[in-house]
Amino acid sequence: MASPRKFYNNPFTICIEGNIGSGKTTFLNHFQNFNNATILQEPVDLWRNVTGVNLLDLLYKDPVNYAFLFQSYAQLTRLKLHTLSTPSPYKVMERSIFSARCFLENMKRTNMIRDVEVVVLEKWYDWCLENTNIRADLIVYLRTTPEVVYQRMQARARKEEDSVSLEYLRQIHEIHDDWLYRKTLFSLPAPVMIVDGDKSLEEMVPQFEKCKDRILKEKTDGTSNTTIVLNTKA
């Protein structure tokens, strides 16, 4: 008789962070064949169909009216992924509830949402951290210049991203840099591994291998202030 499958309530959690088009999905796909890691992509399909409503599309087309609603739902769906038990000792996530604050910060800076909406979302975020099991053991930051991600976004031609401007991508890039590169914005929940995301896929593969080796063999050997910058030279 087969033994029950083991589930991990506290898997070692790696959060893949970066701008739109920075290569997060490509990075995740590189781990698909590793049998002791559970890969959790961003829940875009849920955002595209909330009882038949494409909330992601509404966010980009009419952010003033839909930013608060989208951000509320995005935080909920991210929380569900964070608290999900996995059949593997490692969990690799595309973005996290922590990076949701980057998009909220941009909404604040650009006056996209009202002050009272900011307060509600921040209180909801704080409650999640204090009352749920949200784990992050390592952050991999795919640091990619806005011009590169804009070109990639144009090439993949997702319908919802038609209205995303280069200026918006620059804003998101600066906030991620403030958080993960300059470390002047939010506290870091885990050590940070910085990867040059401007490289082509062929050039990135060796970097993915270095990340995988460190993540899956060593887990972590630093503190919350550790930053690992991978050498991207051939």
TrEMBL record:
GO terms for cellular component: mitochondrion. ATP binds at residues 18-26, 152-156. Keywords: ATP-binding, Nucleotide-binding. GO terms for molecular function: ATP binding; deoxynucleoside kinase activity. InterPro entries: DCK/DGK (IPR002624), Deoxyribonucleoside_kinase (IPR050566), DNK_dom (IPR031314), P-loop_NTPase (IPR027417). It comes from the Eukaryota. Residues 14-215 form the Deoxynucleoside kinase domain. Belongs to the DCK/DGK family. This is Deoxynucleoside kinase domain-containing protein. It comes from Lasius platythorax.
